[in-house]
Amino acid sequence: MARIVLGIESSCDETGVGLVRLHGDGTVELLADDVASSVEQHARFGGVVPEVASRAHLEAMTPTAERALATAGLSLSDVDAIAVTAGPGLAGALLVGVAAAKAYAAALNVPLFGVNHLAGHIAVDTLQHGPLPSPCLALLVSGGHTQLLRVDDVATTITEIGSTVDDAAGEAYDKVARVLELPYPGGPPIDTAARRGNPAAIAFPRGMTGPRDAAFDFSFSGLKTAVARWVEAAERRGETIPVDDVAASFQEAVADVLTAKAVRAATEAGIGTLVISGGVAANSRLSTLAAERCVEAGIELRVPRPRLCTDNGAMIAALGAHVLAAGVKPSALDLSADPSLPV
Ligand code: KG4
Ligand code: ZN
């Protein structure tokens, strides 16, 4: 029998409510995905302001849920389970989603599942490309995270095999955008500028690729500093900054390191499928280079469409459906948020 799962996401600056249908054969169908973002309220600070995000979640939560239900043509009484991001994320922001989820679960008398945001970024791919092969490798790249994960079962068994030792990939984009006087969030404007520039113009460093570095960890803070130093030096010489070339050269360094490590990790572990997700997965160079290198290595590449890659409620609903199908015990109603929840 098909079951409806409502998913709630509020770990950062997006209030997301998604609805999915879990079919008897374990496949999961997307019914609605509504997102309210407070990104514009954070733009002038160049990053997410936690208190502003929490307040925005409070205001947006109920209207977002109502819009999602209306889109799916459902009412709350049709919902069979609630899933919510329990972490990782901003404490105050997470608490708004967890409180809303508990209220829905208690009022409807349906099971509640507190789930992991990072696993949600992987589970969302099943809405577009169907069930995930086991095992598969996930490269998760967003404003808050940069991780390589081995996924044996997205509902129950995910193992981290590498992560950033400093900045996340998206954070590096946002910081470099500030240096280049491009708007926040920096990913889209850098991506656009980079398409006009020469990726070989400046040889920026590839972090954590030395022989003594951990094979699957990442570092972007040295790259960010190298870009800032290069721009400062050019300014001191009174030169106009070649923004397109700097953007293209920076973007090439990020895409090179991410795809090289992901493909090597998959090859060494004998894993045949790579999933790339998170906001940075929308990057044009990252997806092109990943596609080229995956073809060379004989690896299947799955990248969900950009709308599913950025934070949303559908990813949490999808993960909730897989968790429900796996027979995982529901969370108690005293579920609390865990800002540093591990996978
Ligand atoms: O997954 P997401 O929406 O939120 C987090 O969980 O962080 O990711 C947002 C990040 C931002 O840092 C943004 O600059 C980056 O994704 N981003 C991109 C692109 N679009 C968004 N980075 C590179 N290229 C893009 N096209
Ligand atoms: Zn995210």
Note the topology.
Blueprint (H helix, E strand, L loop, with lengths): L2 E7 L4 E9 L5 E10 L1 H4 L7 H23 L8 E7 L3 H18 L3 E5 H7 L1 H5 L6 E6 L4 E8 L3 E7 L5 H11 L7 H10 L24 H16 L6 H27 L3 E5 L6 H14 L2 E3 L3 H4 L3 H13 L18
Parallel strand pairs: 1-4, 4-5, 6-9, 9-10
Antiparallel strand pairs: 1-2, 2-3, 6-7, 7-8
Name its key features.
343 residues; alpha/beta; Nucleotidyltransferase, domain 5; 2 domains; 5-stranded mixed β-sheet; binds 5'-O-[(R)-(carboxyoxy)(hydroxy)phosphoryl]adenosine; binds zinc ion
Output mean pLDDT.
Answer: 96
CATH topology title of the largest domain: Nucleotidyltransferase, domain 5
How much of the sequence is in beta strands?
Answer: 15-25%
**Count of structural domains:** 2
Small ligands present: 5'-O-[(R)-(carboxyoxy)(hydroxy)phosphoryl]adenosine, zinc ion
Q: Could you tell me the radius of gyration in angstroms?
A: 20 Å
Strand line-up of the largest beta sheet: 3-2-1-4-5
Order of helices and strands: EEEHHEHEHHEEEHHHHEHEHH
- What structural class do the secondary elements suggest? alpha/beta
CATH top level class name of the largest domain: Alpha Beta
CATH H-level superfamily title of the largest domain: ATPase, nucleotide binding domain
Note the total helix count: 12
Shape: globular
Distance between the termini: 30 Å
Low-pLDDT residue spans:
none
The major sheet is characterized as: 5 strands, mixed
CATH architecture of the largest domain: 2-Layer Sandwich
Tally of extended strands?
A: 10
Helix content: 40-55%
Catalytic activity: L-threonylcarbamoyladenylate + adenosine(37) in tRNA = N(6)-L-threonylcarbamoyladenosine(37) in tRNA + AMP + H(+)
EC number: 2.3.1.234
GO cellular component, one term: cytoplasm
InterPro entries: ATPase_NBD (IPR043129), Gcp-like_dom (IPR000905), KAE1/TsaD (IPR017861), Peptidase_M22_CS (IPR017860), TsaD (IPR022450)
